[in-house]
Amino acid sequence: MLLLELVVLLLLSSVALGWIARHFKFPYPIALVAGGALLGLIPKLPQFPFDPQLILIIVLPPILYQAALLTSWSDFKANIRPIGLLAIGLVIATTVAVGAALKLMVPDVPWAAAFVFGAIVSPPDAVAATAILSRLNIPRRIVTILEGESLVNDASGLVLYKFAIAAVLTGAFSFIEASTQFTVVSLGGIAVGVALAFVYIAIHKHLGDPFIEVLTTLTIPYAAYIAAESVHTSGVLAVVAAGLVRGRYAPELVSAEMRIMARSVWNLLVFLLNSLIFMLIGMQMSDVVASLVGRYSVTELAMIGIFVSTVAIAVRFVWVYPVAYLPRWLSGNLREQEPQPRKRELFIISWCGMRGIVSLAAALALPLTLPGGEAFPHRDLIIFLTFFVIATTLVGQGLSLAPLIRTLKVGSNWSLHDEQKQVRAAMSAAALAAIDARLAAEGAPSEWADQLRAEITDRIALAAPDGLELTPRAELILRLRQAAIKAERRELIRLWRENEISDEVMHHLEEILDYQEAHL
Questions:
Q1: What is the CATH number of domain 2-414?
Q2: pLDDT digit string, tens, across residues 86-124
Q3: How far is CA 211 from CA 197, 258, 260, 262, 273, in A?
Q4: Residue 111, class by beta-carbon neighbours within 10 Å (0-12 exposed, 13-18 middle, 19+ buried)?
Q5: Where are the domains of the chain?
Q6: Residue 465 has pLDDT above 60, yes or no
Q7: pLDDT digits (tens, 9 = 90+) for 360-381
Q8: Among residues 98, 103, 100, which one has the least CA distance to residue 122?
Q9: How far apart (Å, rounded) are the C-alpha atoms in residues 486 and 478?
Q10: What local confidence, expressed as pLDDT, does residue 461 receive?
């Protein structure tokens, strides 16, 4: 019964935090980290029983898979150099720098455990950053690089994390052996993910039912992760590779009904998993802090947290500027192919180092004990500092990002809205041509389609480069359609309340009206 009450508490907390984030218009990870911290302040809060080793398996595959599924392969490939330098090079540099910072502040922490902490906080999470950037007309390339970095650095960070864990458990580490194993594990994971993606693509073609299709897609990330781990390769890279490949074929493979249903299911699942992790670590924080206070003063904990957070933020600045300019100085072709990086844009990329769900899940997944039965060295300190770094970067950098962008006046002439208008114009022109061809084939009078042509013509006018405002006729039609849908909805509800139609008919027609209203 206690477990059920805890589940209800977590769900209600997630709902409340999600509403707060939506109401005040800021990314929900910021609300979750604040909510998790508040949960940790509740005295004698019962703990949610879980196996640390299952956290990574349950939480990370669907989150990584959804991110990969929504990643543009063409944009990812076009920016593979900066993405690779950030997602692999910066992750390694952050692991070393943050690990050394922890060792400097707490000398009795073993080097291997210090690097475990460095690997945990090495991958930034782009969810909060891109949620803000997408609303501020930031150059598309910046958003693409940050999303691509977040996708790959989760994998590289977790691979380093596993190597560091192994070093703690075995007490031995060889750089040459680890480098070779890193390459084999990474390439093997990618191969498993690509192969499994094509298997699922072949299966998907024969399903034909939206519910079964959605359920099948939910198994892909877990199947990829388990299959890769079973042959001792990288499960996270397998998930990422499977998502990228399947996302490439999804537009041709997936029906509109399945796509609408899957989008809702995946968004809900990822939000719940994010909420679960933030709540779980929040519930643990009271015990973690209590165990640390006996060894460290509150001031010492704050100083350690501030120092490692500062190093985690600073190393990104130290890395971003040199790797943006050095390749251009060394390669003439690169200077011709890529635009000159702007210092303001590089500053924004450097500031987008918010940590999130992957770091939390990795911290929670730390083993409780070593093979000999002794406790994992400084596990509570690592968990506390992970939460400290996440809170510092998410709240500090996350909330200051939008004002910073406006102050620096970072922007671009290109925007997603412009591309959408261009595509809508092309689609509308194709629709007009199809209408004329169909009328000719049917032998029908041309004037029968005048009203439909007028509606499409308004869309073309709106999509034109200078068509920033709706025509008076289009505005009136939009208001009339909205009024008509509201009237239809009121009448539908009246008929349902008076038992003149069944629930099934009501829900079906309500769904149609929902899509029509969302389209407007």
A1: 1.20.1530.20
A2: 988 999 999 999 999 999 999 999 999 999 999 999 998
A3: 19, 7, 11, 9, 21
A4: middle
A5: 2-414, 415-469, 470-520
A6: no
A7: 888 888 888 888 778 889 999 9
A8: 98
A9: 12
A10: 60
